[in-house]
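debug: dumping io for the single-chain case to check the tokenizer round-trip. Nothing else runs in this session.
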Amino acid sequence: MTLFELERNADFEQLIRHLEASSNPDIRRRAAEILGSLEASADAEPLQGNPRSPREEVIDALVTASQDDESDEVRAAAIDALDQYGQDALEEFIGDLSGQDLEDLAEWKKAKVLARGLTADQPELRMAAATGLGRIGEDNVVSALVDRISDPDSRVRTRVARALGRIESPESVPALSERFHEDQYSVRIEIAYALADIGTDNALRELVDVADAEDEVLRRIAVDALGRLGSVEAVEVLANALSDEADTVRRTAMFSLVQLLSEAPANASHQIREKIVGELEAADEDEVVEPLIEILDRSTETAQRRNAAWLLGRVANDSSTAAAQDALIETMADDDEMTSKFAATSLSLLDSDGLEQRLLELVEDDLRDEELRVKALFVLGKIGGDTSRNRLSSFVERTDSDRLRKRGFSALSKLGGVGTVTGDPA
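debug: decoded output
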């Protein structure tokens, strides 16, 4: 079985075997990453004949790999996987390595022990200590973390930056900003995320400045991080990046704008949506529509797909209408009901010659997905004319689906073809 199949099946036993026994460090690293991602599934009942739960087996395997694997990357991946299993898992590793039991200590005492671990000889202990401090979130350890932002091991610096982002302490911004300009890219990515999570004016200013840097990779890193802010201030910068000379930066900017909609606080959501739509309407159409379609086609993040579907109906026009319609019609069958509704609503905003006929053919095709046909009826209720009234009148008489019949009557009612019907036509 491939690692993908093992992940899909949550086969902890085989994944642990790959982590412990594979001769390929890339496979061991990937096995550790997958084991971390499966944390939510690890509380299953123990297999017959095994007194231990998958969670216990996984944590033990990750603790061992964190200490003993010959690859730096595998050890780092194992520590990050332990982080996903929570503070207790990290403390088990730290206790094994340091010889100190943290289980019964108060949080502030744990923080002091972990702060001492930042100066340990073993880089893995420093990595775990930084990660644990970020989880505890005590402000009194910020200075200890800031001191380690120049640790000689880049893996430690990466996790120190991540911890400072979790704590969201404004006092760490100067040190993070300084390191942002002189470290390797893998560390700079975490620093950018930390600055975005801290979100103060000077943190935002640092990201905005770097978004205009000569270095293409740095621009992409900054643009990616700005999507985490959920603020109006980031929208204009990201909109400007849609015309960047580098394709990777342009696409990252669109992903960030979509992500920003998800991160926006409720009290600013409407303002941010209006700002984004206004900026996208003013941007080059090709630079906007194609990335949104790509998100609908490839993204597995529900929030991203919802927002991409919502935006597409508001920014597509002229030459991009046909492509946007194709993407939205496919998305109307999405498993997520809200994504499906957003796609249908957006499609109703993109009426053009041929759309009514296309949707009628879809509704009348018994081989198509019922959810897709239901949403097509919703759109026809908004854009249809005489042709829709005539064909839907016939359709509701012959369909065997109660749901399609109700939705058909609802569409006809909106088109003036029938009176209001009893039941729930929506």
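debug: round-trip ok. The longest helix spans residues 247-263.
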